[in-house]
Amino acid sequence: MGLLMPALIVVLVGVGAGYGVGNFLQGSSVPEDAAKAPAGGAAEAAKAGEGAHGPAPKPEKEGEASQDQAATEEDEPIDPSDIGVTFLPPVVTNIADPQSVWVRLEGEITYRKSGEKKPDVLAPTVSEQIVNYLRTLKLSDLQGTDGIHFVSEDINNIVRSLNGGQVREVLITGLIVE
Question: Do strands 54-55 and 83-87 pair parallel, antiparallel, or not at all (unpaired)?
Answer without folding.
Answer: unpaired
